[in-house]
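Worked example 3 (structure in, sequence out).
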């Protein structure tokens, strides 16, 4: 799935590592100018500098932003539009899986923290981006990172599961509201993915991946290619879609 993004300006949150970094790097290689958003400025500066070897560092802008703060999220969008002249697409990817928290024992702090980052943060990001795109009047594409857990409802991490299910509902609702403005809203829905977070848990990937229908975990570059497709011009009538890329786990 190859999609040119030449001339487009894309904002990616959580671009400092994992899926977000893969999406940001994919967009840069596809010709986009990319705003690398992350709560940790050092991480996105590292990503930007790493692209210098491919001659792409000047196409990237690293910006620190906490997605739980609407003011910082709005400033992130403004920084991109100011530096590159406009916005064409935004990927609301930043999130936090967090510690497992079964329903009977989850604390108010864990519950509220997960919803603040994974659901409210996605909403603030998509809302701020939509305001810019609507004001420009030329359409655009919004992409959220959902989760197969928000589809399946597994036990043991109820706050994250509910938050991601909320992201899926948010995508559908925003897609309808923004359709008259030709702003498309879709979600990629990953399953188990090889990231620094999953790789840091000893034995986790080796234990879980073989139980998936396809028998292996998703590579972040696969999700990046899907996000690039949604951000490009090849699917002008795709909106409100939740697209699993999960080794078959939601089908099972």
């Amino acid at each position: 799935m190859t999609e040119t993004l030449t001339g487009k300006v894309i904002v990616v949150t959580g671009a400092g590592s994992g899926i977000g970094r893969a999406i940001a790097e994919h967009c840069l290689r596809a010709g986009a100018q990319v705003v690398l958003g992350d709560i940790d400025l050092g991480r996105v500066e590292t990503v930007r500098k790493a692209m210098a070897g491919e001659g792409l560092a000047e196409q990237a802008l690293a910006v620190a932003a906490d997605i739980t703060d609407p003011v910082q999220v709005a400033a992130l969008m403004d920084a991109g539009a100011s530096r590159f002249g406009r916005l064409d697409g935004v990927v609301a990817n930043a999130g936090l899986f967090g510690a497992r928290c079964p329903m009977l024992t989850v604390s108010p702090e864990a519950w509220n923290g997960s919803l603040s980052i994974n659901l409210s943060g996605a909403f603030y990001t998509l809302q701020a981006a939509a305001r810019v795109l609507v004001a420009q009047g030329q359409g655009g594409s919004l992409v959220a990172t959902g989760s197969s857990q928000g589809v399946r409802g597994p036990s043991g991490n109820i706050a994250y599961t509910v938050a991601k299910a909320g992201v899926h509902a948010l995508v559908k609702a925003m897609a309808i509201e923004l359709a008259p403005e030709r702003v498309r809203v879709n979600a990629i829905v990953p399953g188990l993915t090889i990231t620094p977070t999953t790789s840091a848990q000893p034995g986790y990937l080796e234990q879980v991946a073989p139980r998936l229908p396809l028998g292996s975990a998703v590579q972040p570059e696969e999700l990046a290619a899907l996000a690039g497709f949604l951000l490009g011009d090849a699917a002008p009538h795709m909106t409100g879609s939740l697209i699993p890329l999960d080794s078959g786990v939601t089908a099972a």
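Notes: The chain has one domain: 9-244. The beta strands are 9-13, 33-38, 60-64, 89-92, 140-145, 183-190, 242-245.
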